[in-house]
Fold these 2 entries.
Entry 1:
Amino acid sequence: MTLLLAIDDVRVSYRSDHGLLHAVDGVALEVAAGTTVGLVGESGSGKSTLAKAIVGLAPVTRGAIRHRGVDVSRARGVQLKRLRQSVQLVFQDPYSSLNPRLTIGQLLAEPLIEHFPLSRSARQREVVQLLELVGLSAGDADRYPFQFSGGQRQRVAIARALAVKPELVIADEITSALDVSVQATILNLLRDLQRETGVAFLFISHNLAVVRYLAQQIAVMHLGQVVEVAPAQELFAAPRHPYTKALVDSVPRLHRRDGRSARVEGDLPDPQDPPAGCRFHTRCPVGPLVDPQRTLCLTQDPHAGATARPHRAACHYVPETSEELSNAAGDRSRA
Amino acid sequence: MARLRTRAGIVLGSPTGLAAALLAVCFVAIAIVGPSIWGEAAMRIDPAGAYHGPSGGAWLGTDGLGRDVLARTLAATRLSLELALAATAIAVVLGVPLGAAAGIVGPRMQRTIGTAISFGLALPGMLVALVLVTIIGPGSLGATVAIGVALAPTFARTAQTLAASIAESEYLAAARVLGVGRRRLLLRYVLPNTAEPLLLQTGVAGSLALVLISGLSFLGLGVQAPSYDWGRVLNEGVDALYTTPSAALGPGAAIVLAGLMFTFMGEALARSMNPLLRIGAAGRCSGRLAAAAASPAGPALDAGPAGADLATVRVQDLHVSFPGGSGRREAVAGVSFEIRPGEIVGVVGESGSGKSMTALAIAGLLPANAQATTARLEFQGTDLARCSPRERRRLLGTSLAVIFQDPMSSLNPAVRVGRQLAEKLEIHAGMSRGDALARAEQRLAQTHLPAARRRLRQYPHEFSGGMRQRAMIAMGLMTDPALIVADEPTTALDVTVQAQILDLLREINRRSGTAILFISHDLAVVTELCTRVLVMYAGRIVEALDTTALDRAAHPYTRALLETVVDLESDPEQPLATIPGRPPTIERPAAGCPFAPRCAEATDHCRVETPALVPLGDPQHLAACWARPAGTVATDRAPLEVGCE
């Protein structure tokens, strides 16, 4: 599989009143062509900032973002324009991401005007095709965004992103503002689009169930860092990082049979002043909170040991059992 | 679909727009022909006829040189309007680019420009104008430039604020990601979205410029003789204010009318820029006050089983409506249910199903333009619809707690958390401040907020989202409520924090038997927490059942909703079930069963008559569906007939 996007040790920093804030701090992640990578994490984990950094809307202060081998993390001018023809971003809120003053037809024509020399009639045809691709009709082109429901607007936003025929679409929480029944239609749409056009998705969400449904590979973010990356099935069957385990366990379920096991106490620490050592140790259910012997977590960053294995977890105390489990799963997938 | 209305149509469609248009036509006509018709009469000096009152020859009388004031007023129209427009144009041209620039430049330059604008705003406009006039020299040109410069800072500030908000908007970010060029960004994204407020301000500034220039002329610093504008004519008339007041009134009235024209014009043009109005979709709010009135007899429907007299809340035939285009629109259309002590009742439904309005109606917190009627709204045995407003406030204030989705907007940011918690007891129980604060600390500790005593002295912004929601819950617990109404209390929270808050609600319920009405769009959350579920669709309860019976859900909508939920058991290989179509809007309620247009099992009967909520075989299990008549036994879920996209 072709490697489309390789994020290597990326840091995104903002200047704040109290000094530098690293919203993304040393993230490594890869997206292969035609696949869906899920990115989960709580608010403040830096997942949206990472999305913005990929398309050049946030400043990368360290590391590289390679698009087909070319570092685009500091792209300008023509290079940036070429990147944006290949990588597109769909925002969370379909109410604020569509210019209220333009009709749907005009909104979809905007990227076409910028990227393709088309005649007016060819552009109209293209707009109609895009509308039909996302399940809207040609008649919708003359209407304004406020005449549509949230789900329909999100379809417009998706169509607009697809207008430039990108290889990768970053979807940043695109279903979290929608009702469940509408969410299902959008998720189905993304699946179908991937089958029809072969577009890759970086699907960002705080909803683990949704990410599990769409993604083949899942990365879990916590306080600006990726703490675990694994194939989707494996991540849920045998989560290795205690934070992942707690996240999975916190997901409300329709048919919960047993009680919860790992419960995380408290809230996310201040990203301005992240805890030393492992950033999760202040809330970790297996760390120094419960086992004072585990002082390693207080001083050592567990990322140092994490390598590019298919299942990597940044934890000093990965339980043996899940290690074996994941090995077994790995064997099965190789077989 | 409504056809697009033209801009002119919108302008003329509103009373102010029509008034502005009429005034503008008159003023422009007078400005064009005025000097040639009345110019001569206006200059004719007649020392014998000085300070004459109104007469057949001069309707407004004459001034100190015996000139006809009406003729002078009319002839001065052109110059007065020209100067006002020129000054406004100068203000716009100077102010808008400066302010807009502040939105695009770097942070340091931004601060510099911002400070300069603030400095300009701090100086009184008239003072600036006076100083500038003395520098440039009195006269039309000096006055116009001075007023233009004096008004520029207000435009700069407006443009700066607008540009800043647009620069942060997602649609601008989206356009940049799409590679839209800078010129198009300005022309298609920034300018159209600033047009409305800027036009409004231009109108106000036009009228202000007119008044200020007239003022300068009145003081002798503006238009110089032999030229004259309204300010000068006013000045000449004021000398004899007590003998011939009409000589001052004429130009005064002209200034007022022209000022109105500018303001109205700005308003009308701003409206014409609004795409909502172009489509004719914007509704009008009549702002009628809420009145929970008891309707004498509604269709009495017993939603609850025996032992109902113990109910914490009993609602019968609740309707909530809003003023709409034609008549009223019903957001809640006849809802009946009850909550018994210790029960956790979940209300699920999609946006627009009326679930929040139902909760707000019980809490007496409906928006001002909503109107609620009930056959019965009983809270702990007292009918709220029939007791005095004061008694209702006391009862709800002490026995009911409400938790909202956004804890930041429901806590007062300017008051310490401890004070906010204690306040309720000081008001309702007459407790002393010290005792109330002690109770507050205890309640905060009960919600597992660490270091409760220290937290009392903090402000809401020092709390994280989860801590604020705990503080809101603690506030609700201050009076040991019988019922907690929680409207999407975990929707804005992260999953790990959501799990903590759900644990807390469960604990409160178990410890003190507090009943909870839990509103959520998330079926999974509801099934985890609640003992009973009410499923709402289009303002009605379509199914009511115990959470354990969800596997045997009877109503096609409930079953479809359950199917669409993505959870950790969903098969990634299969497409998700969806519900075809869209829910009816309250603008266009469907006849018959509201779900019929989307239901695979619907018959002709469903489309005509609305089914009532009736108990199925199990008295705890109610459904409103013609395909599930009263007394039928609900079975395990059969394969669904809802469509898959």
Note: Residues 182-218 of chain B form the longest helix (37 residues).
Entry 2:
Amino acid sequence: MAVAADKLDPLSGRKDLVEGHPTFHDVTEAVCAPIESPSWRWWVAFLMSLSVLGILGIALAYLFYEGVGIWGLNNPVDWGYAIVNFVFWVGIGHAGTLISAVLFLFRQKWRTSINRASEAMTIFAVICALMFPLVHTGRPWLAAYWLLPLPNQMDIWPNFRSPLLWDVFAVSTYFTVSLLFWYVGLIPDLATMRDRAKTKTRRIAYGIFSLGWRGSNRHWQHYEKAYLILAGLATPLVLSVHTIVSFDFAVSQLPGWHTTIFPPYFVAGAIFSGFAMVLTLMLPLRSWFGLKHIITVKHLENMAKVILLTGTLVGYAYAMEFFIAWYSGNPYESYAFANRLFGDYWWAYWTMVSCNVLSPQVFWFKKARRSVLVLFIVSIFVNIGMWFERFVITVTSLHHDFLPSSWDYYSPTIWDAATLLGSFGLFFTLFCLFVRYLPSIAIAEVKSVMPEADPHHGDDHE
Amino acid sequence: MGGHHKLTASTVPADQVELAKGSMWRKLPGIGLVLALAGLGGAFGIHSGNTKALHDAEAQFEAVRGEVLTAAGAEGAKQIEAAEKHFEEAQAHLEELKKNQAEIAGRREGAVAAVKGSPTPENKRHFTEVQQEFSDTTLAIVKARKALSHAVEGKEHAEEAVAQSVAPELAEKYEEAHKAELLAHNDVQQFWYSYLTAFMFFLSLGLGGLFFVIVQHLVRAGWSIVVRRIAENVAITLPAVCILGIPFLTHDVAHYLFHWTHSVAVEADQMLAWKQAYLNPEFFNIRMIAFMLIWSGLAYFFYSNSVASDTAPQAEVEKRFHRMRYMSAPALFLFALSATFGVFDLLMSLDPHWFSTMFGVYFFAGSAVTIHALLALLVLAFHQSGYLREVINIEHYHDLGKLMFGFTVFWTYIGFSQYFLIWYANIPEETMWFAYRIKDDFLALSVLLCLGRFAVPFFYLLRRPVKRNPMLLAVGAVIIVFMQFVDHYWLVQPVLAHHFAAESGSHHMELVVGAFDYLTLLGIGGVFIAAFGYATGRSCLIPRKDPRLTESLQFENF
């Protein structure tokens, strides 16, 4: 490996992003292998995910039969797991578009190894998220009717001044653009799959979706232009979606919810949790599918740095909230935060802080950033911590509101837990199907950052 | 290969990156000092005249007041004395309650310890009683503060009533003297508000430069090496500008700027009394000194290591770049915290009742957009004077333009979110901060801020050709830098205008851009230019031994 002698960087040099000097063809082979000859590991993962998805089916069937009474909601806490899970999954769905769009605009070439799978993750996470507004009424066939501004004979419209309605637009726009972006990026690779197909079904299926891509110069030019424009359009969406989600809370007057830092704080948290989930997915993926030379330790290290940065930003937001809760002189605000720390839900709060703020601090050390084990453990911690963050925000502010006589303790039921668990089943099932049928690494894009792609590659003068 | 020939680190022509002996850039320290002397000299000159006028007005008012008191006779004196006594009683009452509370707090600790030691029903009952006593006293204190605030008003009313009871001529004279004193006081305050506006503007440029330098090291940027030295030179203005912040540490100046330094006002206001643990002159000074040391120290660290690397042997160069890269992450951490709490103190506490968790980010967003615009302008100036022409090219302008555009959107995002959430929830203690910024004359300024900081630069910088044409880009950059000043004017000055509108009884907020605004801008700007010019003259215009210089020289947007 030509690493040591790189003079360009005083610390570690601009390394080759793909290790071991493979040829273009080697990369195609490596990425296509899991699709063309799946291993037994895939079946294990898929069947496990499918059975967890079954739990979701049961939980939802009972919900639709019985109604939301099966959940643990009570009078002050009328927003429970449904909103917590919704915000959690929308948050997860942020890393994909950040990696594919924002890092693209910032010329971060290392993104090419992880963008495809992260975008897929984004889409599946948003699907999981969108499920909750739909089912949280217990009567999803009516929810669609209430959420969308559909004309009706009663002339009753949704409240356009409510951020809950903006959510519908924000998340569905985000979903549409993410899907489009993902699909546009997939086209050249779908064509590769088509050209390699050994069965008729495959050839037709990949053929239809590759839209007649032949890799001509003209195709590439249009493709690059479209990709740049979509990146430009998707970038503000990375910020807007979680901003609108934060408005769900922050436009209110409830202590602990109404604070101006919520929009960027939610966005930072979303990127944070999204990157953690990317790590959770990528670490097994690269190892099981033999892709360690394409998703290298360097890639993992970069993700660890993003997690450290965003985790610390989230810590900054926690600190601001605390300081201003005191500084504002508002006793209700101060109480809300004291209640978070030492009240009934202290355990949830301290879980959140330990997982989100403290655990990523190990990434100040290079050893930790390059250790697969540490990365995996911290990524799980962050997933847990970010779920708890939404739980803390939602429940602690609601369960003790202004009037002590209406205070109550919220505890979820087995059906709340089953729905949460089941949503992971949906997520992992979709992800398993993705890695089984689509190239989980952007083959064409990875090739474009390899040394061979440089027009001067091989010229040995100067 | 290919068309044009590109420079590498070893082929950079020396005359492109080293200032000639007679270069106009070498005159900057001198020009800056002249501007500083003219601006600050002029401003302080007028200000000392104003200060004297204020003393005269105060003396004049005292004299007229004496006349009024004499004319009002025993009846008037009694009235005023009664109000005075009432005030003193209110003060004494509050003091006593506070002492009581401290005493009860002591007993409460004992009661808690007793319950913890042996939780007998008797001990528990005792604790409940003490706790009740404590709560009652706390509530009494809140009421006593309100009473004190009424007593302060009562004193003023008593005087006014007495002044109205005397002969009409004398009453008018009193009214005039009072007004003259108010006006004179406002003039003195206006100087410090203008000074703070200019100070914050140039401080934000320096902090922007520091942020730029830290981030380039942190993300191992390649494209920006050729402009980094300019940013380092902008950042190293921080120690000089910070010295100009020393007046804020003095009692008098803080008194003119910060309402929370007025002890009676604080005592009579539950909110300010609550914040006293943080907003008090001693702690404020300690924080300010710490922030100024952090900013100056960080700027000096990156500046000195970078400059020293220009002439150092290879082994040392690597060591220095290692060091800067190593420090960049902790430096960013320090920068974020110090800038946030720094602007909480210098800007947010001007209106000590108001608060926003987003405020630090708001300041940062403005500084970030402005530094990229300032760099584009400085690069253009170097090009115009014959320097850096082959070193910095259209590709670098393009990147600066993209970052100007991106951070414009970011500023808008932060500014809008802050406004929107406060507007939507409509909680009086938060809304009033915006309410008086869209009142009377200041509405136009707020509209200008929205247009000039968002609409105009957004649509202007959207197109690629604009970012790739130095002259067109410079127009956008001038707008951005100008709007950064407007933003700080908008943050600082309405506080005084609002205060004066209430004090003078006109209730109309006037926006007057006066001599102080120009002179302090010129003066502090002069210090900024002098420091920047001095740093620029001392070293090469690019970090010529940066390991990634070639990458930056040959960089191309695709």
Note: Chain A has one domain: 24-451.
